[in-house]
Amino acid sequence: MSVAAVLVTGASRGLGRGIAVEAAAQGLSVAINYASNREAADETARLCRQAAASDAQHFVAVQGDVGRREDRERIVAQTLSAFGRLDALVNNAGIAPRQRADVTETTQASFEEVLRTNLEGPYFLTQSVANHWLSSRYASLLPGGFKIVFVSSISAAAASIMRGEYCISKAGLAMASQLWAVRLADEGVQVIELRPGIMATDMTSAVKEKYDRLIAEGLVPQRRWGTAEDVGRAVRAILAGLLPYTTGDVIHLDGGFHVRRL
Ligand code: NAP
After folding, report:
1. Residue 16 is part of a domain; what is its CATH number?
2. Which of 82, 111, 143, 148 is the most exposed place for a label (fewest CB within 10 A)?
3. Strand order in the sheet with 59-63
């Protein structure tokens, strides 16, 4: 029996792992994309097998840099050859600048690397998957049809002058989500942007003390760090078709951070 399949980019660690595990629990086969950390990708696969709802599901690690065109093509090809189909794409892979620097000192190299990975990658990966769906014309096995999720960030709207290139990449991703939502609405594809806040992963480990303090002081109304499970559960709700009448929309996963306060 064929089961629905999802490709999750950057699923070897952090939020992507949480998404992969929840998708497995939801009954999907999962392609676990990673950049270089094969061991971590294998561990995600193990956790997926543990969480899986049936024996019909498969979990494969797929190496590839989403910022490189030839890698993107290989990621999609390997996913399709593993599962024979694809029902959802979660564009999660992303990087912070290697060094935080004031906007007066952003280097061209950092700007290009962050934009290539965080914006160009998901934009063109989505294009590949959308064109696959448009040309192959099989029906989705997911309730409500095919799904595309973009994992952006509160940085799409909150200006951090020490990592301007990251903010710009995420603001661009917010528009990419709306563009693909409008283009694909008639094609049975739902597109949602998830906008996480301050999440406990390797990405934020270097600034843990700073955010521990800010969260304790009330920066986040719910007064805690977000987790990979918080994001995974939101993706699971989307995959399960629990949000049928929305597309191009933003779901904030930030404990209330985005609410303007007085
Ligand atoms: P993380 O812990 O640093 O994990 C990054 C993941 O992305 C790893 O699986 C890594 O693979 C993969 N990756 C990195 N560059 C890649 C590339 N070029 N191609 C393919 N995969 C790549 O990051 P995270 O905190 O989970 O963040 C996941 C997403 O959420 C990112 O888009 C990030 O911007 C966004 N986000 C994070 C936070 C936060 O506070 N952490 C908040 C808002 C939004 P390897 O293991 O092989 O390196």
Report:
1. 3.40.50.720
2. 143
3. 59-63, 29-34, 5-8, 88-91, 146-151, 189-196, 249-253
